[in-house]
Specification:
This protein has a 3-stranded antiparallel beta sheet with strand order 1-7-6. Helix 2 packs antiparallel against helix 9, helix 7 (150-168) runs parallel beside helix 11 and helix 12 runs antiparallel to helix 16 (323-330). It has 21 helices and 7 strands. It is 61% helix and 7% strand. It has helices at 23-29, 40-67, 73-80, 85-91, 97-116, 121-124, 150-168, 175-178, 180-204, 218-224, 238-266, 271-289, 291-294, 298-301, 307-320, 323-330, 337-366, 402-405, 409-423, 434-458, 460-468; strands at 3-6, 131-137, 143-148, 231-232, 236-237, 380-386, 392-398. By secondary structure, the protein is mainly alpha-helical.
Length: 478
């Protein structure tokens, strides 16, 4: 869905929406963020995720460490009695102070880069948007400023990594792989700590009380978050930092460590490992190149900051999004030239669709529709919605270009890229394919959630839009 919104107000006075919100206000505010009221299905889902998500991460990492990445052998051993849960747990490396120091240095380094190094890249990189940028309007009517310097942080971090690997030799390039499970415990400590801190902060000293949502349910509030944009001071934004810095910057470093381990173990780096590194690095660099655009996405515009983002960004993302590289350490795969080219083309075409679809949306928004998409002026549907204070706003929903093919065609490209990472690992094990399974569930759920919100927000105008663009992700299928 590509929308262009217009409003002349950046900050408004609203009633306090953190407590005692009326039904009509809830209906209007429901256009943003997560729910005000929780049904039993949502509550059960939240509790199950809180209980089992950490064990899912441990299971996959443990399966590689103890069973060469087989996801069925641990279950078979438990079923036949060859191993017990205690045996598996005891074989797993425990928390170490070495890993704690590595992780503490890592997070501190990223905080320093984020807070103390104003962006310079936008001054010499044509087309790159960095420095201080405005985010989207919050439900309370506030527009926050952000220091966009993620690309610069990524460049500095990797420059230090390569300088160490080839010159300084302060630590081994395999340091991440060698401490992988102890680092998992450290990441869990940070994930739970920041989530709990943000939860308590929302009650005691919220950054903006008008942007808080309380459901009355402890578990849902803890997981999905209460505060919309928790901050410490004026610039340390929890969402922007944890969404992008400890996890996504680490993503490419983790893959490099896997490649270094493969070189150490087998005397070579396979073409499949190189392919995974390249394709995932393209995605990571795209994220940071377009970090200013990311301020207008669902994570920043609608999601509150809770365990879902805090723990997810610290643990779920770096440990499960990198499963392909981890798998290839234990199961090296040398692809044939034909397979290599095929997987590479799938990944590049998927990236092209993902990027160009988002580019069309961004261009449409920036020009308020006064642009050309595929050589012609884009068609759109005019619609309106009301913000929390009753102010009426106008919006445009584009139905041209990729946005005329499907309402979320950027997800199609994302899924093609995700599948290419998995195919690079061959077909011997299921574990590398967890990523495409997870991304399919995530994006379909996000699509349905986003469209439910848009239906509430735009009303009959949304029905006109879905009639014009009937497919969600896959043309003629879904």
């Amino acid at each position: 869905m590509a929308a262009s919104q217009s409003s002349g107000t950046t900050k408004r006075r609203n009633k306090n929406v953190s407590n005692g919100v009326s039904g009509s206000e809830k209906e209007q505010l429901g256009q943003w963020g997560r729910a005000w009221e929780v049904d039993w299905f949502s509550l059960i889902s939240v509790i199950l995720l809180l209980c089992f998500a950490p064990f899912i991460v441990f299971y996959f990492v443990m399966a590689c460490d103890q069973y060469d990445c087989s996801v069925t052998e641990p279950v078979a051993d438990l079923y036949t009695g060859k191993s017990s849960l205690a045996d598996i747990w005891n074989r797993a490396p425990s928390f170490t102070w070495t890993a704690a120091k590595i992780y503490a240095i890592w997070v501190t380094f990223q905080i320093v880069l984020y807070m103390c190094l104003p962006d310079l890249c936008h001054k010499f990189l044509p087309g790159y948007v960095g420095g201080v940028q405005e985010g989207a309007r919050t439900p309370a009517g506030t527009v926050n400023n952000y220091e966009i310097n993620g690309l610069q942080c990524w460049i500095v971090t990797h420059a230090v990594w390569f300088a160490n690997a080839y010159y300084f030799k302060w630590f081994s390039p395999t340091i991440i792989f060698d401490n992988w499970i102890p680092l998992l415990w450290c990441a869990n400590i940070l994930g739970y700590s920041v989530s709990t801190f943000a939860f308590i902060k929302a009650y005691l000293f919220p950054t903006n009380a008008k942007d808080c949502k309380f459901t009355g349910n402890f578990f849902y509030n803890y997981m999905m978050g209460v505060e919309f944009n928790p901050r410490i001071g004026s610039w340390f934004d929890f969402k922007l930092f944890f969404n992008g810095r400890p996890g996504i910057i680490a993503w490419t470093l983790i893959n490099l460590s896997y490649a270094a381990k493969q070189q150490e173990l087998y005397g070579q780096v396979t073409n499949s490992m190189i392919l995974v590194n390249v394709l995932q690095a393209i995605y990571v660099l795209d994220f940071f190149w377009n970090e200013a655009w990311y301020l207008k996405t669902i994570d920043i515009c609608h999601d509150h900051f809770g365990w879902y983002l805090g723990w997810g960004d610290c643990v779920w993302l770096p440990f499960l999004y990198t499963l392909q590289g981890l798998y290839l350490v234990y199961n090296p795969v040398q692809l044939s030239t034909a397979n290599l080219v095929g997987v590479l083309l799938l990944g590049l075409i998927g990236y092209y669709i993902f990027r160009m679809t988002n580019h069309q949306k961004d261009l449409f928004r920036r020009t308020d529709g006064n642009c050309k998409i595929w050589g012609r002026k884009p068609a759109y549907i005019k619609c309106s919605y009301n913000s929390a204070d009753g102010t009426k706003h106008q919006s445009k929903l584009m139905i041209s270009g990729f946005w005329g093919v499907a309402r979320h065609f950027n997800y199609t490209g994302d899924l093609m890229g995700s599948l290419s990472y998995c195919l690079a690992c061959g077909f011997s094990h299921l574990l590398p394919y967890f990523y495409i399974i997870y991304m399919t569930i995530l994006l379909v759920h996000r699509c349905i959630r986003d469209e439910h919100r848009c239906s509430s927000k735009y009303g009959t105008d949304w029905k006109r839009y879905t009639d014009a663009v009937p497919c969600r992700i896959l043309p003629a299928i879904f």
